[in-house]
TrEMBL record:
It comes from Bacteroides cellulosilyticus DSM 14838. One of its GO terms (molecular function) is hydrolase activity, hydrolyzing O-glycosyl compounds. It comes from the Bacteria. Coiled coil: none annotated. This is DUF1349 domain-containing protein. GO terms for biological process: carbohydrate metabolic process. The keyword Signal applies. The keyword Signal applies. Keywords: Signal. Residues 1-19 form the signal peptide.
Length: 216
């Protein structure tokens, strides 16, 4: 009986680890052209689309493509992004979104002919931080780690060495939509590809502390 139960638990664990696939995710602002092939998502980004709220520019937009699944608790998520950026503010990367007033988007953004590591944090109003790269890059990995009420954003050129680009507050203990987004505020659209998307569950830190203090 114990062996049977153990085998069932292993099967459940295997199914759970592979349950989340690209095909099972959902669109918010589905673009006209997109395709899932070889475990990657390619799309032509909707022209004149973006995510931004109020500050500096005086407008609010919430109409760019976002492909996501919903996760609760703490996790690590990463994706490889390759884009044919052309126009000012062409951008692509990860998004973590609670609702239209609370989200983080982070990735590559094309500004004034240069590639920038870009993060927008929105809590009713948006802010924007950038790190300008010395030269264009063919692709980039973006990783986000949600722990308690903070999200750490990292970038990598090789999926081995990751460098932090932002640490931002985001409400904890609430489900959020996690996935990848792309936007084209100024241009006529561009092609982008997302590969190696992975969400890794992280055990809740508060619960781990409780278990440690209340160990039998």
């Amino acid at each position: 009986m114990k062996k049977l139960l153990f085998s069932l638990l292993i099967m459940i664990g295997v199914q759970a680890s592979f349950a989340q696939t690209l095909e099972k995710m959902q669109w918010f602002n589905e673009p006209e052209q997109w395709e899932i092939k070889d475990k990657s998502l390619s799309m032509f980004v909707t022209p004149q689309s973006d995510y931004w709220r109020i500050s500096h520019y005086g407008f609010t937009v919430d109409d760019a493509p976002f492909y996501y699944a919903t996760y609760g608790g703490e996790f690590e998520v990463k994706v490889k992004v390759t884009g044919d950026y052309k126009a000012r503010f062409d951008q692509a990367g990860l998004m973590l979104r609670i609702d239209h007033e609370n989200y983080i988007k982070a990735g590559i953004e094309f500004v004034d002919g240069k590639f920038n590591l870009s993060t927008v944090v929105t809590h009713k109003t948006s802010d924007w931080s950038v790190i300008t790269l010395d030269k264009p890059v063919p692709y980039i990995w973006i990783k986000a780690v949600r722990r308690l009420d903070a999200v750490e954003i990292f970038y990598s050129f090789d999926d081995k060495t990751y460098t932090m680009m932002r640490n931002a507050w985001l409400q904890d203990n609430i489900p959020m939509k996690v996935g990848f987004m792309a936007a084209c505020p100024d241009g006529g659209g561009f092609n982008v590809k997302f590969e190696n998307f992975k969400v890794k569950h992280l055990p809740d830190m508060r619960r781990l502390e409780w278990l440690k203090k209340n160990a039998e």
